[in-house]
Design goal:
- The protein is α/β, with parallel strands linked by helices and about 210 residues long.
- The chain contains eight helices and eight strands; from the N terminus they run βαβαβαβαββαβαβαα.
- The model has no long low-confidence stretch (mean pLDDT about 100).
- The protein binds D-xylitol-5-phosphate and zinc ion (ZN).
- The site of D-xylitol-5-phosphate (DX5) has 22 residues, from β2, β8 and α7.
């Protein structure tokens, strides 16, 4: 599956870019929300997402790069999130948080920064719908892919199988047409791509190129 990241879209023409994604075979629309605290950048928030939800025909894969993400469970549901991804690094009571997200009617994703070992998910992986592996330090689009991600995918894939988990593996950051095939082969189910899609010069053709790998 492919989830183009709206962070790299043309914010002056969001409706146009969302419509191009609607007409494509992309699977989800990835939405990056930042707070300037957990990550050193601020993107956009729920008032924008409310309109994105009205325009998008693709399920919204919301990635919260914020502290205290569970404060916003109801807000995420209200603006149409299909998947709510929260970071492991800001979640002291992860089981409680994941349960609350699911009880609110969304799928629950847990996100790991590049330095956070997948082994820390051993006792929660059976209870989550998705694990989002950051393959760059979160906060900005257009960064260089971190190669250690391949080994994390493989280790997570074997943990998921061993634990009888149904969790999907998603990879986010520095994904492009040159590394996508290897990421899928390593065991990724969903790839996020921002710059590679929206700054390619031909959004629709690039999405189809990803989907035809
Ligand atoms: C980074 C975000 C990513 C970002 C990816 O903090 O979480 O979703 O949009 O952008 P690219 O694909 O350009 O690295
Ligand atoms: Zn993201």
């Amino acid at each position: 599956m492919l989830a183009p990241s709206l962070l790299s879209a043309d914010f002056g023409n969001l409706a146009r870019d969302i419509e191009i994604v609607n007409r494509s075979s992309a699977d989800w629309l990835h939405i990056d929300i930042m707070d300037g605290v957990f990550v050193p950048n601020i993107s956009f928030g729920f008032p924008v997402l409310e309109y994105v939800n009205k325009l998008s025909q693709k399920p919204l894969d919301v990635h919260l790069m914020i502290v205290e993400p569970t404060k916003f469970i109801e807000e995420c549901k209200r603006v149409g999130a299909m998947m709510m991804n929260i970071h492991y690094e800001v979640s002291p009571h992860l089981h409680r948080s994941v349960t609350a997200i699911r009880n609110a009617g969304m799928k629950a994703g847990v996100t790991l920064n590049p330095h956070t070992p997948v082994e820390l998910l051993e006792d929660i992986v059976a209870d989550v719908d998705l694990v989002l592996l950051m393959s760059v330090n979160p906060g900005f689009g257009g960064q260089k892919f971190i190669e250690n991600t391949y080994s994390k995918i493989a280790r997570l894939r074997s943990m998921i199988e061993r634990r009888g988990s149904k969790a999907l593996i998603e990879v986010d950051g520095g994904v492009n047409l040159d590394n996508a095939a290897r990421l899928y082969q390593a065991g990724a189910d969903v790839l996020v791509a921002g710059n590679a899609v929206f700054r390619s010069g031909d959004i629709a053709a690039t999405i189809e190129a990803f989907k035809n790998l």
